[in-house]
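Sample 3 of the quickstart, ligand NAI:
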Amino acid sequence: MKGLKGKTALVTGATSGIGQAIAIRLAEEGCNVAINYRGDPEKAEDTLEQAMKRACDGIEACGVTAFPVQGDVSKESDIVAMVQAVVDKFGSVDILINNAGVQSEVPSHELEADEVDRVLGINLRGSFLCARETIKHLLTQQRSGVIINVSSVHERIPRPRYVTYSMSKFGMQGMTQTLALEYADRGIRVNAIAPGATITPINDAWTEDPEKQAEVESHIPMGRAGTSEEMASAVVFLASDDASYVTGQTLFIDGGLTLYADFQEPWSA
Ligand code: NAI
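Result:
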């Protein structure tokens, strides 16, 4: 992809699932990658190893560096320190991938305020604060940059019993479009991807049970769940200069999930 070589990318929640695939793919495209992890440095080392192998296998002077950076995105002080650490290490943050996210299932009438704060604090407030810190650096350095938010089909499809998740992802759409408009004339593009059902640890409840997986996949027009690598492909496109005129958009990568699957066959002949 055009324009990625030598850029610096920060990926939040990069030690598993979609974030890990994005970090590895960005390294493969020639980016220096900061791999954010919340708690487990060993997982970050594992991601780092995989990224470096993919980026540098068989290349002597590969020029790509991967860097694990600790930070809990629900804590403002962690985010400020994390973005600063990446700038100190690489001189800039050109690409931010807001990927870290959680979900929880609770009937809405039983939801505690603390749980609302927890999910929104990671998924939405955390993403905003990462974007704010990155934008500050880009403006100070008068650099162009790219922010990509990992949203969800649930920025469009309501999700009963997961209202905090829906609130966070519907909110992410508003954040993507607003920041895109606010900084469009300063060379900062802001976009999102909206994955459908993807095989990652967040979905252990059904990916580890073939019957449940088949049930989930029966609702998807393409008949299968997506992979983290398929999500990463879209992210590198949006991060690259091949998408240089794209801003404020959400790219749905969902095997047709948002296409009103009930209309696949006529309702009456
Ligand atoms: P995952 O559970 O493997 O990844 C989530 C990552 O976020 C983990 O690495 C976790 O450690 C990190 N994280 C959680 N809280 C954090 C915090 N406070 N600070 C820093 N990192 C934190 O699951 P997956 O699927 O890879 O999720 C990545 C993103 O993709 C999430 O935003 C999720 O909402 C989104 N997504 C996933 C879909 C799926 O079907 N797997 C569908 C649509 C969206």
